[in-house]
Specification:
4-stranded mixed β-sheet; globular
Length: 119
């Protein structure tokens, strides 16, 4: 299941960087899903890594300046958010950030094109 989400995320990042080269450095990954030993896990947690953080963050306002940025979570067709992810979604939305759950490349492309419409 993780490979499906990984492959989807890689395809979406590649497309985004080709489609929006001026925003290539504004789309960053948050490697929460990586397997780590306890020492590394503590290291990254101390640096600020948080359970529930979205897979990608786009640090750019939408074309209407309604949102500050976007958290993007990749899920398989049947994948569900964890409680930590639901809490993160709520917190990000409280601060005028958009939050997307993308289950396909088309989901991602359509949402990003709407978000960056005139950019």
């Amino acid at each position: 299941m993780k490979n499906i989400e990984h492959n989807l995320q890689c395809a979406c990042v590649k497309w985004f960087r080709l489609q929006y080269p001026n925003y290539a450095n504004n789309l960053i990954a948050i490697p929460n899903g990586a397997k780590r030993d306890p020492r590394s896990g503590k290291w990254y947690k101390d640096e600020g890594l948080m359970a529930g953080a979205p897979d990608l963050v786009l640090l750019a306002p939408d074309w209407k300046a309604e949102f500050h940025g976007v958290g993007i979570e990749f899920k398989t067709e049947k994948g569900k958010q964890t409680d930590a992810q639901k809490n993160m979604e709520t917190d990000l939305k409280k601060e005028n950030n958009r939050y997307l759950i993308c289950r396909s490349f088309d989901d991602f492309r359509n949402e990003i094109e709407k978000y960056l419409k005139n950019k």
